[in-house]
Specification:
The protein is mainly alpha-helical and 269 residues long. The chain contains 14 helices and no strands. The chain has helices spanning 2-30, 34-39, 47-55, 58-89, 95-104, 114-124, 130-134, 141-152, 156-164, 169-180, 182-197, 201-206, 215-221, 234-266.
């Protein structure tokens, strides 16, 4: 049994290394100079990181991405949790129709909403602002559906006990439901954060002011930085990519204990 366990552990380690090899290679490449990369030499340097942060304004892009992704995650989870609680616990006219419409939004490709969102925000004067980046992403039908399925699995007796003690529906939600559903909320928060962090199309369309660029838009600009005729400074691009993935890895490590539990307990109720 021990030999079998070691074999399985070795396979898991090998699979993990294969999965991580592109990331590890990009990090290794980010410490080389462009000249060394194109000539096949080894010449390690930190200049790519200092250039990305200082010269190419990636510190500002990082701040923008943190503000936008963090705000979208908090607001989306708040709206989705309240909607899920209403769908799971209350009976009202048109509930099933409204829930069906919410689920139906999952079938609408996001690119279809680009022009309507752009025109709406342009009329409201919210383009080239944090609000223009955040508002279109607050509504999340998948999060409402996911959390509703999880909340339906929580015994209603807990709600009834809280109501008997004089709690209001909002108090039941935040003091009873949310603590129990925290694994599902955290796992969904990670998915929302990742989706917004990696969002490229909407920030590219909605933002023209360079000071409001997110990391994905700033990263795309680096492809125009050429160390020579027709060449791309790939070590610089890889340094910027490494800066881009670090907050994502940090977020994953913070909620990884709840991630699998939230998926397995809340996805199929």
């Amino acid at each position: 049994m021990k030999r079998e366990s070691r074999f399985l552990a070795g396979l898991a380690l090998m699979g993990g290394l294969i999965f991580l090899s592109p990331v590890l290679y990009s990090i290794w490449m980010s410490f080389q100079t462009a000249q060394a990369y194109y000539t096949g030499r080894l010449e390690f340097t930190l200049d790519n990181y200092t250039a990305a942060i200082g010269q190419y304004n990636f510190a500002r892009y990082l701040l923008n991405s943190v503000i936008v992704s963090g705000t979208v995650t908090i607001l989306s989870l708040t709206v989705a949790t309240m909607a899920a609680f209403a769908f799971a616990r209350f009976t009202f006219k048109g509930r099933d129709l409204l829930f069906g419409a919410t689920v139906a939004t999952l079938m609408i490709p996001s690119h279809i909403t680009l022009i309507p969102n752009y025109l709406t925000l342009a009329k409201a004067g919210l383009l080239d602002s944090y609000a223009g980046l955040i508002l279109p992403a607050i509504s999340n039908g998948f999060a409402a559906f996911f959390l509703r399925q999880y909340i339906r699995g929580i015994p209603k007796a807990l709600d009834e006990a809280a109501y008997m003690d004089g709690a209001t529906p909002l108090q039941v939600l935040w003091r009873v439901i949310v603590p129990i559903a925290m694994p599902a909320i955290l796992s969904m928060g990670l998915y929302i954060f990742l989706a917004e962090w990696n969002n490229y199309i909407w920030p590219l369309v909605a933002i023209g002011n360079e000071d409001l660029y997110t990391l994905q838009v700033g990263l795309a600009r680096l492809y125009r930085i050429n160390p020579g005729e027709g060449l791309v400074d790939w070590p610089l691009v890889m340094a910027a990519s490494t800066i881009t993935i670090l907050p994502v890895l940090l977020g994953f490590f913070l909620v990884e204990r709840h991630l699998v539990r939230g998926i397995t307990m809340g996805a199929v109720k």
